Heme lyase CcmF/NrfE family subunit
Amino acid sequence: MNGTIGNGLVLGGLAFAAFGAIVGLASGLRRSETGYPWVLRAVWGFAACMIGANLTMVHALVTNDFSVKYVTQVGSLDTPLLYKVVSLWSALEGSILFWGLIMGSYIAAFALIHRREHARYMQLALGTMLAVGVFFAFLIAGPANPWGAVFPVPADGPGPNPLLQNHILMVIHPPMLYMGYVGMTVPFGVAVAGLLRGEIGEAWMAPLRRWTLVAWIFLSVGIILGAWWAYAVLGWGGYWAWDPVENASFLPWLTATAFMHSTMVQERKRMLKLWTLSLALASFVLTILGTFMTRSGIFNSVHSFTQSDIGPTFLVFLGILLVTCIGLLASRGHLLVPEGRLSSALSRETSILVNNLVFVAITFTVLLGTVYPLVSEAVRGVRVSVGEPYFNKMAVPGGIAVLFLMGVGPMLPWGTPDKATLRRQFIIPAVVGLVVTAACYAAGLRGVYPLLTFGLAGFVTVITLRELVAPVRVRMSERKEGLVTAVVTSATKAQRRFGGYVVHLGIVLIIVAVAASSSYVKHTSGTVRKGENLELGGYQMKYLGLVSGEEPHRTFVAARLQVTAPNGKESEQRPRLNYYERSTDPIGTPAVRETPAEDLYISMMAFSEQAGTASFNVWVFPLVGWIWWSIPLLVLGTLIAIWPRRKAAVAVSPAADLGASPPLAGGGAERGAA
């Protein structure tokens, strides 16, 4: 029964999406709004079918309905209730079904919020989003169908992938990542609508920017939680290895970040319209590429799903997307002419343009290193390995350049600067950066890149904090009919600006943590007998023996280690090996002693009860926890930036205004109100 209902709901969703896509695009291209009510009905129908199909699958998993194919793959009588629900996205077919749920919810939310706005664009935007929905509904109904009937019905199943049961982060990480991936569908639809109409008004830019920011924060949190999961579960002593699937999530993050900076120039100077829309389209295309990498089985990765039949289908869809995007940009891009120009090399718009070029260069570098082994194998028959040295060599200088521009950009004005004022503003941050670098060197830290990173972090932090607490400024915004409109903004009222700087602080925290934890990590390994010690970085670890236990879905063996920190504080850490019925090899859970300054990370590799020995890998990672602690800053800053911004404006006569205000040199007033 669950299989029949679920399959019917998916087919219903496919029908609603196809109908809405055809009506929306056809009516929008004819510039007729008669079909708009029907498009909205199709959106509600598609969302309802996707939600209903997912609830049906959850019911099948919770009730152990092994007559459904997907339940026989990931279900088990012994799996705890939480992991039964989580197993919805633990394998290929379920993850695509879950993707449909998120897509239906996103499109419905967009339609609900903007249903009475932007009439010129809405049909085209919703039609484009539903066209994407057609593809995913087709996947669920065809190549990735989870509803197949099973006969004879087995009495039990293997349960979900043990890696997905090994830490609570797997309850949160995949949904966050999917929310980021699928969320890029909305700005894609908005951008396509703008290109199809050959215009992108300021009112239409607002939802484009806001919905990209929503997807961006989910993607950011998903990436960080994925790194945290790898660190806390896999036991290999790291959080990022330039794995192809990790890279797949990083690529759209880079282009979406560049997009959000580009919108600032487009909004303020009426420039970079085509560049902005290109980045929005690229972000969505890269999410589809990332989904293909994850689910086609072409990459061997702990993050990827097994070999599947959906790879060719994804490749066809990816080809259609590329042709569509390139065709739209080529045929309609000339209509999006810039209304302004770069007035100075030392201007904020120039710094943002350079910043975006750096982001695109990093994107290309990561993409090339990720796909080159596949291209080499396809063309030459030889699979080349591209590892961490390549990515670090190419991406680290780009990351440092981005950090530098994070400080320089906010300090520069819009338009032509007053160079004397600019020099004065540069002095204190530069001095702080030099002092931080010198202090790190005096403390014994070495290495050009990490020292440069720490110095630039001090430089950027001073500028960011200064912008956060900047006093109320007044700028002359426009002269019209003999009046001057004075727009008053402040750190408490300019939500977007304030939120952006809070996000910048979170990014600085991540960059510093990555530089410290990768450059100054300490490592040792060894096999010890009961009562013997391991030493590393001032830590004494005394092996006390083994303990074992049983949980509903696994058994485990843990080592007891008495840890004495450099300050003399003692604690007991228990790294463990977990045994699952489905897995032939144990899955480790490292023990991590966390402090703000550093983490002591202990992973048990093997043990011998007869010999009374155990083998461990031990690392000390400086500042690594700052990566996860950046999440509240990123979320808070994004929420502030999304929140509606209000402006207080007063109109006064030119004489009164000029008499009451001091002269404003160059672009300084414009910079303050940005």
In short: Confidence is low (pLDDT under 50) at residues 301-306, 471-492, 647-674.
